[in-house]
Amino acid sequence: MQKADIKKVLILGGSNQMVQIVETAKNMGFYTIVSDHAIGAPAKKCADSSHDISPADVLRLMEIGEAEKLDGIIAVFDDVTTWNALALCKRLRVPFYASKEQLESSSTIDKFMDYCRTFNISVIDEATLAGTVEEMNGKVLEFPVLLNSYTGKQRAYATI
Q1: C-beta separation of 43 from 13 below 8 A
Q2: Cα angle 79, 90, 45; round to 5
Q3: pLDDT digit string (tens) for 68-101?
């Protein structure tokens, strides 16, 4: 493969979970560039090149994108970097794997569950057991029960 034929992909975030993405992209023949503000981030070590730039710094990443003539950008789905990647892709006019609407439909549990219901996909309904541990004392649960705790910017809750 000639150098001009090699596709370049910018990977936002250098955490451990991104290592496999970098390795997979390299195995597929992509030139990998990782950007993360953390110096020595694990995914940077296996990438073809890297930058000590936060995935939130869209303006500086645009400069890299233009200089490198990127073919695509990857970010972990349902992470703040996904929104940065979408903005960056729009500005650089490169494809992205999700639309704004798709990101919005999965960005909160309520929207995601509503989206699933639109297509008759079963979801587990939520129920609030109690506001405090004291209120929970003595409550009887019907099994099976699936517990999920969530702490986000908008709220903190446990779902059943």
Answers
A1: yes
A2: 50
A3: 999 999 998 667 788 999 999 999 999 898 888 8
Strands (E), the chain: 8-12, 31-35, 49-51, 72-74, 148-151, 156-159
Walk me through the domains of the chain, giving residue ranges and CATH numbers.
3-103 (3.40.50.20), 108-159 (no CATH)
Antiparallel, parallel or unpaired: β 156-159 and 148-151: antiparallel
Token output for 38: 């953390």
Structure tokens at 9: 């992909």
> Which amino acid belongs to residue 102?
Q
Q: Which of 75, 113, 72, 125 is nearest to 95 (CA)?
A: 72
Q: Which tokens is 42 given?
A: 């694990």
In eight-state DSSP terms, residue 3 is G
pLDDT by residue (tens digit) across 18-74? 999 999 999 999 999 999 999 999 999 999 999 999 999 999 999 999 999 999 999
5 DSSP 8-state letter: G
